[in-house]
Design brief:
Elements: E1 6-16, E2 24-34, E3 37-45, E4 52-61, H1 66-76, E5 86-91, E6 104-109, E7 125-126, H2 138-141, E8 155-156, H3 157-170, H4 172-177, E9 181-186, E10 192-198, H5 201-214, E11 224-227, H6 233-241, E12 246-249, H7 255-264, E13 267-273, E14 276-281, E15 286-287
Parallel strand pairs: 3-6, 4-7, 8-15, 11-12, 12-13
Antiparallel strand pairs: 1-2, 3-4, 5-6, 9-10, 9-11, 13-14
Helix pairs in contact: 1-5, 5-6, 6-7
């Protein structure tokens, strides 16, 4: 049975021809694509007899782990701080005939949670490629981070070099479609603990953090986060919210991501692929056993 995150489409494959009258050859084929659907996140908050429903965001995402995505989003936006802040998560009219009703997740917050709708300065629509572009200013995305940890740890460079290979072996949908981002969590010995995929890089991380929050494993101060693409400011912000001290990215970091990682005392590694990488901040956490520097 086909994975719910994968859609199949009929295509024409074109390639050069080395012989015959035509320089091109065409053949019909079936191609597999990563599914992209809108998901609306709403919250129910306020006193029991005066509850209000508020739409927080619509994001284009890959179906699957929707509740984790919603909870992770609320956590990284600073709306909730712990699992106990959430009373109930459900689909709004799941399976209803009304179009789009099964693409709405409603999160009921515990009574007493202080929520100011004005603090979420986000457009109603959020693209799958960048979750921060709806914010009105950089100041609006500054959150109340988990306090810096005084503990320290080190990770062997050889351990970091193996992380992308481990992730690729676990990326089920990516292997079939080539169209998804992934976020993966490892322990300090390089063993993968969890991974999540999505067409949106920020969605993949929200799903991962949401899952960790639901399992009450936050803060993640003794873990390594691997991003399958580039490291943007928002991804470093989300990692900092979860207390993550080491972030590695297969792609490049942005200048603002480096600045935030430096500010938060995080180790940031970029271009981690083909057994090489660049260290942008926090070099003291990476050791080089049996290597000449």
């Amino acid at each position: 049975m086909q994975h719910p995150s994968i859609a199949s489409v009929q295509i024409n494959k074109i390639r050069n021809s080395d012989q015959g009258l035509s320089p091109f050859l065409s053949e019909d084929a079936l191609d597999l694509l990563a599914v992209e659907d809108p998901l609306e996140i709403r919250i129910l908050f306020g006193p029991q007899n005066q509850q209000r429903e508020k739409s927080i965001s619509v994001t284009m995402c890959t179906p699957g782990h929707d509740f984790e995505l919603a909870i992770g989003f609320l956590f990284t936006e600073g709306i909730i701080t712990q699992k106990e802040d959430v009373l109930h998560v459900s689909y709004l009219n799941k399976g209803a005939a009304a179009a789009g009703q099964d693409n709405i997740v409603l999160v009921q917050l515990k009574e007493g949670i202080q929520f100011d709708p004005q603090k979420i300065e986000r457009h109603f629509y959020t693209s799958s490629s960048c979750g921060v572009c709806g914010k009105s200013s950089i100041a609006a995305v500054k959150q109340q981070f988990i306090s810096k940890s005084s503990n320290s740890f080190t990770v062997d460079a050889a351990t970091l070099m193996e992380l992308p290979f481990i992730l690729r072996n676990k990326q089920e949908v990516f292997e079939q479609t080539g169209g998804l981002h992934a976020s993966a969590l490892y322990n300090l010995k390089g063993s993968m603990l969890m991974s999540r995929e999505d067409v949106g890089r920020h969605n993949a991380l929200d799903k991962l953090i949401g899952a960790c929050l639901m399992e009450e494993n936050i803060p993640l101060q003794q873990h390594i986060l691997l991003l399958s693409g580039r490291a943007s400011f928002e991804l470093i912000q989300k990692a900092a919210m979860a207390g993550i001290q080491m972030v590695c990215a297969v792609g490049a970091p942005s200048s603002l991501a480096v600045s935030l990682a430096e500010e938060r005392g995080m180790t940031l590694v970029g271009f981690l692929r083909d057994r090489r990488f660049n260290i942008y901040t926090g070099r003291e956490r990476i050791i080089f056993k049996n290597y000449s520097e």
